[in-house]
Amino acid sequence: MKRQDFYFELPEELIAQDPLKDRAGSRLLALDKETGEVSHHSFREIADYLEPGDCLVLNDTKVIPARLIGAKADTGGKIEVLLLKRREGNVWETLVKPGRKARPGTRISFGEGILTGEITEIVDEGNRLICFEYEGIFEEILDRLGQMPLPPYITHQLEDKNRYQTVYAEHTGSAAAPTAGLHFTPELLEQIEKKGVDIAKVTLHVGLGTFRPVKADDILEHHMHSEFYQIDEEAAEKINRAKKNGGRVICVGTTSCRTIESAADKNGELKACSGWTDIFIYPGYQFRVLDSLITNFHLPESTLIMLVSALAGREHTLAAYEKAIQERYRFFSFGDAMYIK
Fold first, then answer.
1. Whole-structure pTM value
2. Is the pLDDT of residue 79 over 80?
3. Which residues constitute the domain of residue 260?
4. Does the residue 153 lie in any domain?
């Protein structure tokens, strides 16, 4: 299967640069995965597609303001540090720009010395390990100094950090938001629960690898990034109950989907567990748990559009994307939503 099989032409002006003021005010394209039929709605109507006994799966990861702008201690030169994951204690794996001169031993100051760090090692893909020094609580300092690590295709400044955070974000650890969840409001979730739909929360800390393009012509040669996930007993029980009683499991976002598909046994059952997943879902994959998916519109030739194509079929997916482009839907992280039923 070739990377080019998942290419589509997207006008640049359809890339959403800012979140809507009203989270639930996005548009919603509904796609029937069996017939390829599409219909157009408001995201507020998503509850109409959910039935009593269904289980809605949310990823409750919380994005850290992981982008830090600092200065090299010796020259004062500007340096940008992106926190990828905590290795241990105060040591983080990071992406440093410019990286060419960021050698082990380089010291960096942030916020006029409120936070300092030293590069200790260069690891895989040129990432740097940095040991940080500070007084107080690291998360509070990060909240003061850090910026949200927006995707590279978003060029506008984010006025409110919380708009790159779901309303149910709880467990800190992501370098990117699970963006399908940005459309939900507390009122909408309450409406869904009152309808008799179970809401299960799982955690997958999204890495920047989610934006990494597929470069191999043969998609099977693509190396997937690894991400940490966790499912507690309550979530596993809710998901298993829906499957057992004939309800549907509807994931909000590809990250929720990858979490439950990674954790399920061969019979599609879940247990409380945690671990690392590098699961790559593409056409031909047999879903063990997922029935339906709420997602955003993804980049051409990305692993995300491949996952959507595994569920709805490549032809149906690309035809739906073509209609979304014709109807001027907004694309990517701050864009509109799609429901695959």
1. 0.90
2. yes
3. 3-63+161-340
4. no
Cα angle, residue 94 at apex, residues 91 and 99 outer, rounded to 5°: 125
Residue 176's SS3 state is coil
Assign 248 to helix, strand or coil. Answer: coil
Whether 120 contacts 91, CB under 8 Å: yes
Cβ atoms of 263 and 270 closer than 8 Å: yes
Name residue 59's beta-bridge partners.
202
C-alpha 265/C-alpha 190 separation (Å) is 31
User: Using one digit for the tens of pLDDT, what is the confidence trace for 200-228?
Assistant: 999 999 987 776 789 999 999 998 888 99
Which residue's structure tokens are 């890495």?
207
SS3 12: helix
Region of 94 (left: φ > 0; alpha: ψ -120 to 50; beta: rest) is: beta
pLDDT for residue 207: 83
Show the tokens assigned to 309: 């194509």
Do 183 and 298 reside in the same domain of the chain? yes
Answer whether residue 152 is part of any domain: no
